[in-house]
Amino acid sequence: MTDRELINIAVEASGKAYAPYSNFTVGAALECEDGSVYTGCNIENASYGCTNCAERTAVFKAVSEGNRRFRRIAVYADSDNYCMPCGVCRQVLNEFSPELEVLSVRGDGRYVSYSLKELLPRSFSMND
Ligand code: THU
């Protein structure tokens, strides 16, 4: 699958976001090592701290379906800035795939690519 195809899936997933408080809708598309793709969106709550980001929604869907090995994730928001995963999501992604590639996409479709190691250097992991 090309980067652009994965990004298009993330864009579509953002349409499912439940974000009545921030109005910031995010979509994620998580590609597993076996080629399968899990989508996620952000899901907010009246008790704001209960909010789940799009990336974690995708990870939890994948893991709960028995898939723990990930290759790439595309994260999209209709924003002027590239949509970067928050610190909590970086940590959750790192639990399963420290070698992950992260595609951060902005509203006009342009994107930047990072390794998770760049985004979460010197991380705390199960090896510690
Ligand atoms: N959010 C995500 O879903 N993923 C990100 O990468 C950044 C932030 C969500 C959380 C919240 O619902 C909204 O965006 C504003 O922070």
Description:
The chain has 128 residues and is of the alpha+beta class. The chain is 29% helix and 23% strand. The longest helix is centred in the N-terminal third of the chain and has 12 residues, at 3-14. The protein starts with a helix and ends in a 9-residue tail after the last helix. The mean pLDDT is 98. Bound molecules: tetrahydrodeoxyuridine (THU). Tetrahydrodeoxyuridine binds at residues 19, 22, 24, 26, 42, 44, 51, 53-55, 75, 83, 85-86.
Give me the Rg, rounded: 14 Å
Q: Assembly type of the shown chains?
A: single chain
Strand content: 15-25%
Shape: globular
Note the run of SSEs as H and E. HEEHEHEEH
Which features does this protein show?
5-stranded mixed beta sheet; 128 residues; alpha+beta; binds tetrahydrodeoxyuridine; 29% helix
What's the short version?
This protein is an alpha+beta fold and 128 residues long. It is 29% helix and 23% strand. The model has no long low-confidence stretch (mean pLDDT 98).
SSE order and pairing:
Elements: H1 3-14, E1 26-32, E2 37-41, H2 54-64, E3 70-77, H3 87-96, E4 101-105, E5 111-115, H4 116-119
Parallel strand pairs: 3-4
Antiparallel strand pairs: 1-2, 1-3, 4-5
